[in-house]
Amino acid sequence: MTVLKSILLVEDDIVDMMSVKRALKDINVTNPLYHVENGEEALEFLRDKEKPRPTIILLDLNMPKMGGIEFLSIMKKDEAIKRIPVVILTTSRAEYDKIQSYNLGVAGYMIKPVDYHQFMEVIRAMCMYWTLSEVSE
Amino acid sequence: MTAKKIRGWQIIALIIIIAGILLSGWAAHQQDTSKRSELLLNTRLAQTGITPSNIGALTGSAADLNSPEYIALKMHLVQIRANVPSVRFAYLIGQRQDGTIFFYADSEPSTSKDYSPPGQVYTEAPAGASMVFLTGKMVSEGPVSDRWGTWVTGFTPITDPITGKVIAVMGMDVDATDWNLEIFRQCLPTLIVTFLILLLVLAFTLFQQRAQEDARRIAQAQEVLRESEEKYHDLLENASDLIQSVKPDGTFVFVNRAWCDILGYTKDELQNITLFDIIHPDSQAHCMETFKRVVSGEKINDVEAKFVGKNGNVIVVEGNANCRFIDGIPVESRSIFRDITERKRMEEQNAKLIHDLEVANNELKDFAYIVSHDLKAPLRAIGSLSQWLYADYKDKIDQDGKVQLDLLVNRVNRMQSLIEGILEYSRVGRVSEVKEVINPNKLIGEIIESLSPPSNISIVVDSLLPDVYYEKTRIRQVFANLIGNAIKYMDKPMGEIHIGCMQDGGYWKFSVKDNGPGIDKKYYDRVFQIFQTLHARDEIESTGIGLTIVKKVIEMYGGKIWIESELGKGSTFYFTIPIQGTAPVGGNGGSDI
Asked: What residues of chain A lie within 8 A of the CB of B374, using their CB?
């Protein structure tokens, strides 16, 4: 795992943010994790040249100011950032949300388990996959 | 009444006929009398030309043939015959001592077959002839028949100027046929007049009868017309719709009771208002336009207008209007309107209700979404935090603390299930799915496989189940919940679950039977209520939402669900679904549609 590969977490719930952080720590993933609280902040982060370019974005759907779907639709039109893989991390099982997300080219759709141990397993599977998957710079 | 009249005119006709006959008879008699006088006069005139002394010179036998007296007499008779055309025979007769009557001479030439030579006895001489000899007075007689024919005869005596004795009688015969014909001819005008009068009377009677009949018919027709008019008037008057008839200038010709009742005008007040006074300002332009079209001959069936009553009450009406024309000129428009104010109000109310319902439905959908996210998120946080507490402060939390934290996580999971249950329940009937032909035999096989029942429970499909045409997810939910429950609550070492189906009228009646603990009758309704379970949740983990979903699906399809059970022996869940839910294209399960 390259130390440089960073993760951007777009999540408004502080406990969910802690869950991700804790899970990454628990499975010994040391990649830097950046955290923003909504779509607007995420776009700001991605367009800021000073900030590192993440290799993967973990995106919640329901957020204040700018939700996940709106963020996706803007991001996928932006030539500079549209190839960064996005994985949805949400509580919504609604078919409509899944369809919209995949239509906007997400790389995966994960439902947050209530149980932390299961949550950890989800993060572990995700990280295993993305450490093996090549990304486009 | 008619019979009496017929008798009346019959009597009149009879009187006319009798009068005609009497008159004709009288005329005939008159004619006869006058003709007889004429005949006698002729006889007398002829007689004056005969010299009685000449007769004295005759013998009354063939010997007279050459005597100059006979010849003169014969000449005289021939002349008379020639001068009086109506006379067929003129003759002179005498009487012998024995009373026999004989001919002195006649007007016939000796060559005629009717010729009577002098002295020939006139055997069939009429009685009148003898009477003349006896009385010396003129007599007319006839018609009588003799060997020559039938005659009317006039006899005039010729007397001896000295003795006054009748020495001969002058006779003249007129043909009775001609005679009668003559009389008849004379009567004819009378008869014709009688006949004409009769005809006139008959014609008049007939005419009168016809006139009476016509009058009666007209009266009858008028009565029928009046009744019919009354009937239609009543019909219009008592109709609950507003009926009006308006002249092209807008003044009213007719309005019915309902019109008056609804708009609050009396019929007398109509003279002071026009159609345009009762039209609400909102509908004024539209109504003027419609009215123009109607008086130009259009028939409009979907007029909708707002009227305003005398008291300012506004009513909404719909109806139709047309116009009556005489010689192409509009005379009056006729319209029937129905008061739809209430209906309109209801429609508006319904539209509002539907709108409210849509809003509520959307809110519910949003609510389901909020529940899924906003309620689950803190729940997840509680779960995670309690696990971290235990992990991070393991050395500070004792065994009791660990048990409590475990219980906390367990309750979080249960709440999670409840929330998922609510979401699933709310999705039934809201999320539409395509119907397809379902083979329940196959579907139940899949369900059993996914439920993976313990080996001590056998699940048997008793009969071949019929294909149904419904949403597959829903049908799966029904069977999965019913079979799942039977497995979950099984309390017997050898569990048996039977699935069957039979037709019940227009429905399929499915059954899921188990030999489990059974359900007390008092809980039959309770088990279908949301979140209701019959066991403590820590005993058997259950959300109490499965049967609620099953019931909702079945009722959504128009079916029913019920339980038959005996405590300790087992329960049977029955449910029905309409057969018309079966695919129109019959076929085996799983076939494409």
From this structure: 62
